[in-house]
Amino acid sequence: MSSVRRCSRTACGRPAVATLTYVYADSTAVLGPLATYAEPHCYDLCAEHAERLTAPRGWEVVRLAGESGQLRRSSDDLEALANAVREAARPQPPTPRQDQAGPTEAGRRGHLRVLRSPDN
């Protein structure tokens, strides 16, 4: 059995050079260097499919490129991104409510907050 990972696209047998992950909460597709290990919710892509990648309307594609503009094998960037996504997904402990004259938080979605003014 070959140790070279293949493209995840159907009927494509070319060697993988990039890994695609999704951050559903932020509607973002992240295409970076080939991950060190194959993950169950990541997709390995060959150079052709990585180049032609598009995302659904309303989604953003983040491409992590190497120095020469081509995707290169490095686990540091993907590990940092994966750790950031895991950290953002963890439930935040409730903060003690302070009685103050400033705006109060009425809701939260990802990194955005809805603030309620004190006179509402």
Count of separate structural domains:
1
Order of helices and strands: EEEHEHEE
Q: Regions with pLDDT < 50 over 5+ consecutive residues? A: 66-73
Mean pLDDT: 77
Residues in helices, as a percent range: 10-25%
Sheet of most strands: 4 strands, mixed
Rg for CA atoms:
20 Å
Give the overall shape, derived from the CA principal axes.
elongated
| Number of H/I helices | 2
- Beta strand %: 25-35%
Count of DSSP E strands?
A: 6
Distance between the termini: 66 Å
Return the structural class.
alpha+beta
Strand order of the largest sheet: 3-1-2-4
Please summarize what this structure is.
The chain has 120 residues and is α+β, with helices and mostly antiparallel strands. The chain contains two helices and six strands, in the order βββαβαββ.
Salient structural properties:
single chain; alpha+beta; 2 helices; four-stranded mixed sheet; 25% strand; 120 residues; two-stranded antiparallel ribbon
Can you describe what's shown?
This protein has 120 residues and is α+β, with helices and mostly antiparallel strands. It has helices spanning 47-51, 75-89; strands spanning 18-23, 28-33, 43-45, 60-63, 104-109, 112-116. The protein has one domain (18-91, 100-116). The chain has 2 helices and 6 strands. The strands form 2 sheets. It has a 4-stranded mixed beta sheet. Strands 5-6 form a two-stranded antiparallel ribbon. A hairpin with a 4-residue loop joins strand 1 and strand 2. The termini are far apart.
